[in-house]
Amino acid sequence: MATEMTLEEWDEQFSRQAGWTRATRQHLYRRANLLRARRVLDVGSGTGMVTEELAASTAGEVIGLDIDPAMVAFARQRGGRAEYRLGDAHHLPFPDGWFDVTACHFVLLWCQDPGRAAREMMRVTQPGGAILVCAEPDYGGRLDYPDLPIGRWQAEALRREGADPLLGRKLRALFRAGHRFGSGTPQVDVGVIPGLWDLATLRAEFDREWGLWERSLAGVVPSDELARLRAADRAAVETGERLVFMPVFYALIAGAGVS
Description:
The protein has a domain at 7-139 and 162-196 and 247-258: Vaccinia Virus protein VP39 (Rossmann fold). 41% of the residues lie in helices and 23% in strands. The protein has 8 helices and 8 strands. Strands 1, 2, 3, 4, 5, 6, 7 and 8 form an 8-stranded mixed β-sheet that branches. The longest helix has 25 residues, at 7-31.
């Protein structure tokens, strides 16, 4: 991820992302019977925004794992119920079948080898447990009207930072390919959050969104071109013609996939 943002700014961004996907997470928690889970793992826990929600949704033990020491320290300072540890999604430091529920939120796109991360999540989840991939975007499905190149530029910026902007569409393939337990194939239920932004949200989020875009697109797009695009975007929002659709995929992996 870009390193120029402060931890407080990352926490604000994670909070905004969590707000976009809250209804889907609650649906996945119910399907995974999270309330009865004894042990829960949040992979790529960041500042602990979603981890503490998981902890509030079960009486069991909840562990948040992140590769960034500063993020782990920030999450610990929140003073919540979850435990936070330093670790890599590609090499989860837990025994086979240790967790009833393993979750992640906007994480796999940042993994250098998302297939390995998927296999690790399956490995540490017990037979009969569940893996919740709560949100992974797919910038290849973004629609903008008027036809502004924001999505294409964002996808390029993510690739330059080592992320996969098309990860969302690959979820079923990742976890079916990662299956190595039992004789069956994993049950991978995939869905999409229809991220159609209303005008009120576009107006309210305009400055925060552009602040992030200008940071991530610096060095990718000339500053004068960014300024021109920002003005065109604001004009379209103010006239009410602006449309932004951004698909975010989720998945529930259960049954043979973790047995």
